[in-house]
Amino acid sequence: MTPDRRALLSLIAAAPFAASRGNAMTSARHDLISDRIAALGIDLGKSAPGGAYASVVEDRGVLQVSGMVPSLDGVLVATGAVGAEVTLEQAQYAAKVSALRCLNAVRVYLGDFGRVRRVTKMTVYVRTAPGFYQISEVSNGASELLNAILAPEGQHARTSVGVFALPRNAPLELDMTVAIDPA
To answer: What InterPro entries has UniProt attached to this entry (predicted)?
Structure first.
C-alpha cells in the first residue's frame, strides 16, 4: 500500500460510523458515508443497468446489487486480463471503482445511504492471464475501500474468483449483498 493510499484510507476511517436507527441517525449515516466517498475524489457519474435487469433487488431487508464493471461515465478504467494488459495496482483501483458503483446503485435505489447497515457479502470475478494467482489481492482494493467507507461495519464476507472473460473486456466484475434497516 502506498503512503498516499494509506493516508487517504486513514482519513476516511477516522470518523465513527453510527449504526443506530432514527431519522437523525440515518441522516448522519448518509452524510458520513457520502463524505467518505466524496473524499476519494472519484466522480461516479450516472449508473444504469447495461441490459435487461435491475441494478438492485430488495427482499426482506437485503439488497442484491448486480455485478458492476469498473467504468466511469460508461468508459472502463482498464481493459484486458490482470497479469497481462492490466497490472495488479490497476486492477485494485478498478475493484474500488466497481465497489463504489455498487454503493452508488444502492444510494440511487434507496434515495440515500441512511438505511445501509453493512455490506454482508461481496463477490469479485477477476479476468486473469495464465499464471496470475493474486486474485484475492485484486479484491483487497474493494475490501479496503468498503472497510474504510463503512467503518466499523465495513467487514464483509468475500469470494474472489478468476475467470477467462468478462463483459466489455473488463478486468473484473463485482457484486454485493447489502443489509439495510427497515423503511
So the answer is: Endoribo_LPSP/chorism_mut-like, RutC-like_sf, YjgF/YER057c/UK114
Q: Residue 63 above 60 pLDDT?
A: yes
Residue range 130-143, pLDDT digits in tens: 999 999 999 999 99
pLDDT at 26: 83
The residue type at 19: A
* CATH superfamily ID and name for 3-180: RutC-like (3.30.1330.40)
Residues 6+ apart with CB under 8 A from 99: 68, 122, 141, 142, 145, 146, 174, 176
Q: Is the predicted pLDDT of residue 46 greater than 80, yes or no?
A: no
| Residue ranges of domains in the chain | 3-180
**Angstrom distance (rounded) from CA 153 to CA 134:** 26
Asked whether 178 and 62 are in contact (CB, 8 A), the reply is yes
∠ CA 164-140-110 to the nearest 5 degrees?
95
Question: Residue 125 half-sphere exposure, CB side, CA atoms within 13 Å?
Answer: 15
Mean pLDDT of the chain: 88
